[in-house]
Every structure is written in structure tokens, then in C-alpha cells.
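Format is chain and fold; as here:
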Amino acid sequence: MGNSRSEQDYRDRVARVVAAIVANPMAEHRLEGLARLAHFSPFHFHRVYCAIAGETVAATIRRVRLALATRLLAQGNWTITQVGFASGYQSPQAFTRAFREFAGQSPREFRQQMRAAILDAVPALQRNDIVALPRVRIVERPQQPVHALRHRGPFSTIPHTHRRLRTYADARTVSSWLGISCGDPDVPNTFSYHAALVSPDEWADDDKEIERFDIPAGLYAVHSLAGPYTRINAAVHALYGQWLPGSGYEPDDRPMLEHYLNSPRQVAAGALRTDLLIPVRPAI
């Protein structure tokens, strides 16, 4: 991958493969068919895919299927065994092992924590109608300059964009790691995401992919999320769908933020801490 243009072409071709897996995670994704989709020879495809995606094709398929499992568990309509079968696992034991490795906790623990959030947060008469309702505080943040790398490709490859940003950061001082998003990842052509960091150090102008911009000042509804990143989507849906309508606030036209307070490089998935920040303004 000799220059940035050819590297981006490779990334775009691998992104097509990931998009196909995300669109139909339970399909039988054969290596030859995925190689054709990316316009690579089957002989070289897997090596290129691993270099670009940072994991094997099988690992991507497993991760996407387990992400599907988190949504099914959060909805609560199926038993854990049914969720495991729907995610491609032939036994509850195999599903539990894979899910624990992915999320840092068992499927039962994940579902119990989702239910506990309901019981802690809402009156008894409302509990049957709510999936999860995060606890929230309102904060006012000043304008903040960041260095950011725009994510390109499916939502599920965002961790790879963060790995690339860490490579760019190298030995520079970093005071905060952030995710900056606009739109809805479930609605095509509306979603954008930047992996971002706050750094007091100077950055050379030849880092062409790195964007420099300011996060606007304003009010944010903050939910402090404990546990693996697989819980983020469910918590964000609860913020918008359950907390916001009765809060006295409405969404403001600024990006949503994820502030990563620690890293899976440092702690187990269950010990991760992330602040989710929804931009708000007082309702009129």
C-alpha cells in the first residue's frame, strides 16, 4: 500500500466486506465470496483484510454476531438460549463463553444489569414500558479544540479508526480520548463519526488525515456508563427515547460525545468507564 490514495482504496474495499457482514451477520460468509466483493484474489484477501481491519474475517463475523446478541438480550423478548441460537451458537455454553470474552460478562449478567437500570431509575408503574433509563446529570462544557480522525466505513469498524488515531498520536501527550458523532448509525447516509483526542502538543502540518476543529460549548446531558463498549448503543437509545422526552430538555444541534475515561488496553471490559454526552438545551 504505497501511498495514501491506494491505502484508502484498500480501506474502501475492505469496508464493503464489513458492510456485507453487518447487513446479514447470520449468512454463510465464505472467504471466496468476500474476496470477490473486495476485488482481491482469495489467495491474498485474508492477509490484506487482517492488515486493514486489525482482525481476521472470522473475528469480525463473530464480533458482529455478538453485537446482535447484545441487542436481543437488551430487548428481553427471548431466552438466553434462544439468543445464543440466533447468534449462531449451537449450545448455551459456547454462547456464554464467547459472549463473556466479547462483553466482559455473561449474557445473564448483561441482561440483569440492563434490568437493574430500570428498577433503579423509574417508578414501578412505568417499569414494564421502559427498556433502560440511564441516570443523568447536566453539565456545561466550554469550547474544546481537538485533533480528530474521521471514521470511514461501517459502524462496527470504529475501533480500528481509534487504533489508527493512537498510531498518529505516537508519543504525544494526550489528556482525553473522545468519540464525536452526528446522526444515527441505523439510518443510512446520516451518520458521521470522528475518533478524537485532546492534546497540548504541537502537531505537524503533514498529518493530512488529522483534522483540527473545536467542539462547541454548551449544555450536555451526561450518563456515566460502567462496563464494556457493547452497552453504549443501548444507553444512547435510552437517553434519547426514555430520558429526554420527560427531562425538560430537547436535543441541541451539536455532536454527541463519548468520553473514554480508561482503555481496554489498561483494564478488563467490565471495568471500562465511559461518559456519554448528549447535547441539550432547555425545552421551549
Notes: The CA atoms of residues 260 and 274 lie 5 Å apart. The beta strands are 137-141, 144-150, 176-182, 192-198, 210-215, 218-226, 249-251, 256-260, 273-282.
